[in-house]
Amino acid sequence: MERWHNRVAVVTGASSGIGAAIVKYLANNGMIVVGLARRVERIEALRNAVAAEARKRIHAIGCNICNEHEVIAAFKEIASKYGPVAVLVNNAGIVRNSTLLADGNTQDIRDIIETNILGVVYATREAFRAMKAHGGDGHVFLMNSIAGHQVPILGKISMSIYAPTKHAVTALTEVYRQEFNNERSKVKITSLSPGFVETEIVTPHMRDSLKDFSRLHADDVADALIYCLQTPPHVQIHELTIKPLGELF
């Protein structure tokens, strides 16, 4: 991790779950970490969960990742206060109980698409611009899912529009790889696709229905991200799938 020491990492959806775990891991490994979320107080509270010398490296900015203007403003603030972005973790993502056939589901569908796809596009555009302007290297992570490669059959639980948005993330990963190459940059792109992770994104209904399923913890995903960051500059892990032992799909 020496390559990334004292460089800036941005984590979206940083207030809980996988995002919060990644903030802690990056700070403990020497990076300056800026968490983006609406619940900034929860990001600030993460300082109490890292090594004493790492606390000063955790910062929080309030941002609704679905709002393009807020994303642009957040990256401008990051550049002015903390320096150029070297690592971006597109972690923000949501799921809803609604099905595609449910009456009155339009807002749920729109929220998922805007968070899981457009939020990634806004943040990656702004981060890449900073990376290219300051040496052309960096690493962008897209938090994907096994549902981005196949649609799990979960009994009567519908993956709704969530699975299609994660399939879009799989496609975005390859499109970004090609565009980064076309820009002659040294920026890496990695899709992280975990299986069932026990986090706040899991609704009570899903948790009850899947109570017998094997599951990962947020720290497992954060640990995998650190592994990817430690690869040599010429090595790019394009896709990393992480499943709990005994997963049924």
From TrEMBL:
Keywords: Oxidoreductase. The keyword Oxidoreductase applies. GO terms for molecular function: oxidoreductase activity, acting on the CH-OH group of donors, NAD or NADP as acceptor. Belongs to the short-chain dehydrogenases/reductases (SDR) family. This is Dehydrogenase/reductase SDR family member 11. The lineage of its organism: Eukaryota, Metazoa, Ecdysozoa, Arthropoda, Hexapoda.
